[in-house]
């Protein structure tokens, strides 16, 4: 059985000075602090300490071997999205980082796969880039869960998702630009509170708006971090749909009936949470995801699933391998 980690991140070791290229400040860059370590910067501010597994494929493969991971799917760190920049600049950034991802994967194309990023603030440019990237060797696309005030039910974003289905690009939705950060200045609270809420918001945006009625069933879409708050609050959502017409006005079916339309990853870090996740989503709709190589990721990749006592061996096989093979069409 191949073990596949479908949620991991990369950063190039360095890239072009984007402040100089575009003439504006606040762009991300890498400040290398010592051999094998760096600080990801946003303009003049420290954003996150990182280490060479982000950019060094030899280290990544060595650590994959240590964890028993056969294949890893990489996607950009969301700070690279540039959704708040002019669309053409975001399109240029997408090409820079998408091409860099393929350069890392070229070290071992059988074990390292990549998802592209797109300038999601411009639907035409986003569709063009996902098409280019899929033709270049990416196996799907990672998008943020919103663009400014636009959630995933925005007509332009629905059009983009329809295009992804048409070019056979699987979609990973990753939370970013978290809500209410001004109220959460300490303790990584945006990552601990807002990230799960952002993911739930993106799922409910598709369900309650009726967007899933307009999206083809061939669309393969996965939400990071176990679907955020969604699986654990689904009873509340169904209850609201049943008893308040303003909740169900655009949603023809009970919200829980849509769980077969999307996937989530397994990054929930607790066996009881994983057990509930399987009960809610079903063993066919969960993919192994670690959030490697960041501190909030699973530190022993796959251990939670491998050691889950209530899962059958067949269910473990699906989550660790076969679901992801089907999701990304890796068997073709």
From TrEMBL:
Pfam families: Amidohydro_2. GO terms for molecular function: aminocarboxymuconate-semialdehyde decarboxylase activity; hydrolase activity; metal ion binding. SUPFAM superfamilies: Metallo-dependent hydrolases. Pathway: Secondary metabolite metabolism; quinolate metabolism. Keywords: Decarboxylase, Lyase, Metal-binding, Zinc. One of its GO terms (cellular component) is cytosol. One of its GO terms (biological process) is secondary metabolic process. Residues 4-330 form the Amidohydrolase-related domain. InterPro entries: ACMSD (IPR032465), Amidohydro-rel (IPR006680), Metal_Hydrolase (IPR032466). Its EC number is 4.1.1.45. It comes from the Bacteria. The keyword Metal-binding applies. The keyword Repeat does not apply. Coiled coil: none annotated. Monomer. Belongs to the metallo-dependent hydrolases superfamily. ACMSD family. This is 2-amino-3-carboxymuconate-6-semialdehyde decarboxylase. It comes from Sinobacterium caligoides.
């Amino acid at each position: 059985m191949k073990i596949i980690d479908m949620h991991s991140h990369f950063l190039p070791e360095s890239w072009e000075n984007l402040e100089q290229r575009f003439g504006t400040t606040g762009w991300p860059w890498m400040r290398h602090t010592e051999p094998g370590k760096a600080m990801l910067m946003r303009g003049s501010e420290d954003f996150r300490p990182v280490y060479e597994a982000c950019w060094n494929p030899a280290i990544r493969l060595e650590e994959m071997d240590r964890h028993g991971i056969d294949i890893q799917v990489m996607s950009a760190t969301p700070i690279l999205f540039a959704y708040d920049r002019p669309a053409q600049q975001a399109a240029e950034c997408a090409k820079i980082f998408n091409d860099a991802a393929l350069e890392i994967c070229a070290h071992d194309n059988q074990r390292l796969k990549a998802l592209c990023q797109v300038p999601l603030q411009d639907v035409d440019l986003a569709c063009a880039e996902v098409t280019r990237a899929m033709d270049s060797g990416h196996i799907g696309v990672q998008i943020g869960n919103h663009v400014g005030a636009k959630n995933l039910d925005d007509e332009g974003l629905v059009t983009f998702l329809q295009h992804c289905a048409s070019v056979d690009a699987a979609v990973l939705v990753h939370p970013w630009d978290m809500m209410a950060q001004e109220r959460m200045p300490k303790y990584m609270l945006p990552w601990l509170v807002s990230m799960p809420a952002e993911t739930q918001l993106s799922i409910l945006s598709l369900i309650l708006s009726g967007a899933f009625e307009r999206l083809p069933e061939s669309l393969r879409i996965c939400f990071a971090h176990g679907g955020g708050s969604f699986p654990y609050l689904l009873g509340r959502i169904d209850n609201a749909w049943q008893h308040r017409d303003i909740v169900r006005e655009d949603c023809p079916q009970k919200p829980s009936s849509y769980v077969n339309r999307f996937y989530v990853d397994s990054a929930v870090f607790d066996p009881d949470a994983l057990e509930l996740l399987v009960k809610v989503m079903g063993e066919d709709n969960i993919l192994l995801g670690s959030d490697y190589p960041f501190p909030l990721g699973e530190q022993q990749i796959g251990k939670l699933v491998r050691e889950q006592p209530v899962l059958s061996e067949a269910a473990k096989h699906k989550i660790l391998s076969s679901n992801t093979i089907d999701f990304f069409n890796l068997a073709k």
